[in-house]
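Run log, item B.
One chain of 155 residues. Sequence copied directly from the ordering sheet:
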Amino acid sequence: MESAPAGSGEDPFSVFRPKRARIVATVGGVLAILIFTIGAVIVPLANWNSPDRVLFASIGYAIATLFYRYATIRAVPTREGVTVRNLILTRYLEWPQIVGIQFGDGTPWVHLDLHDGDTLSVMAIQRADGPFAHRQASRLAALIQALGSAPDRDG
């Protein structure tokens, strides 16, 4: 097995996480809970009884749950592979399963090219994070190159 890539002193196996998306999702989740809970308590709707108000407040908690899931998007690299947690699904890949990485203009996040011809989005590295995202994509590419052993595809 090859060693991990040398870099700028940053741990090559540190977790990939978006910066701006986590802040926005956290604030959005807190606001959803506050707005829907306060709305359920103080909005004077004559026809609303207690179950209606509880249901209305529950909508805020459901929205906050989606924001929480978005705030916890990440990719966790190890020497054996990487676990990618996106908004809905979590998938584990061994390094040899990854044959390339794309982070071209116009794409909102990194895409991994897989040995079976499929691709996997890595929402943890988002273009909105600017230069930080490019450094993270480079670190992921170095890990793929150093630890993967699948042949490169043309293309």
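Observations after the first pass:
- The first helix runs from residue 20 to 42.
- The mean pLDDT is 87.
Flagged for discussion on Thursday.
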